[in-house]
Every structure is written in structure tokens, then in C-alpha cells.
Amino acid sequence: MDEPSATQRPGEVVITLPAWAADAVDWTQPYPSDEAKMRLTVALSRLNVERETGGPFGAAVFELESGRLVGIGVNSVVRLNCSALHAEVMALMLAEQERHSFTLSAPGLPRHELVTSCEPCAMCLGATLWSGVKRLVCGATRDDAMRLGFDEGPVFAASYDYLQQAGIEVVREVCRDEARAVLEMYRSRSGPIYNP
Prior knowledge:
The chain is an alpha/beta fold.
């Protein structure tokens, strides 16, 4: 597993993708469909499990109209000792850094979408709302993750209704079987369930 920098100082948090992640994607090609975008996030989640750098979840932020990749994330909770470092949060943080903006809906920016290999937990739904994305695309379901023992928190049908009322389109179960297969692979390898 990748380790945080030995030069990290008290009062400092260092957040990095695993060393393999940036080279695992084609940053130059557009991703024209929901399926192409989801297959990228599923591939990230699979590599995260195979390389033992985190949990079975991947996410990416794209420009909505062009399909251009802006940021990626993989679950890094155990690797970086931080319960907040879910794939969605990582992807959103890195996209905001790339855009030099605390919101992906800042004036002058194109519209963005978050694509995630599994429906978000309660924390990641909140991050989605505040990030400024205009679309959320999900692969596996909350139930698929909970079958492994992950606690997704207080997520309800009303949670998704709230996102939609806030102007965020929600699309679910894109390439669900492929995304669920990564969860099952994680289970077969006895990957740690890292929330209580």
C-alpha cells in the first residue's frame, strides 16, 4: 500500500491518489456516454482492490457537455487513515483543485457531473450537493454495498429527491452488474469493512 509522506507535519493533512492512479486513465480522450464514464470508474475501483490500495469504490468528475475528464478518485480511507476519503470526495476535491474553484458551478466554468461506481453514502451525497455538479450517475446500489457490510448512513428516497430539487439530475444503475462484480471481488478477498 502507498504510505503518506514521511515529511508530513503535525497539523497537516496530505491527500494523494495511489501512485498507479494518474496513469490508469486517458486524460486526453472524451468519454461520450454514461456507460463509457461508468466503465472508467469501475476500472478505477477494480484496480484499487487488485492493487490493495483501498476499498472497492471509484469516482470521476467530467465536463457534462464535452465528456472531458476533470478529476478521479478511489476510496482511500484505510490507505490514508481518513474516514472522509471516499472515492466521490477524492474526485470532487481533485476536480475543484484542477478548476481552481471551491465550486464546480462557478461563473465561467462548464457544467460538471460526478460518476461513481456505487450510489453515494450519506456523506458523499452531501458532498455532491455542495460541490456544484449538475448531474450524478451511479453504478452499483446502496443495497449492493450494504450486502458487504458497509454502512451507507441515512440515505433515503427523499435524499435523492432533494438533490433533484436542487437542480442535480440523478441517473442510477448504469453498468450495475460490472460495478457490483468489483464489490463481490472485494468480498472474496476479505477486504476490510472500515466503517463501524
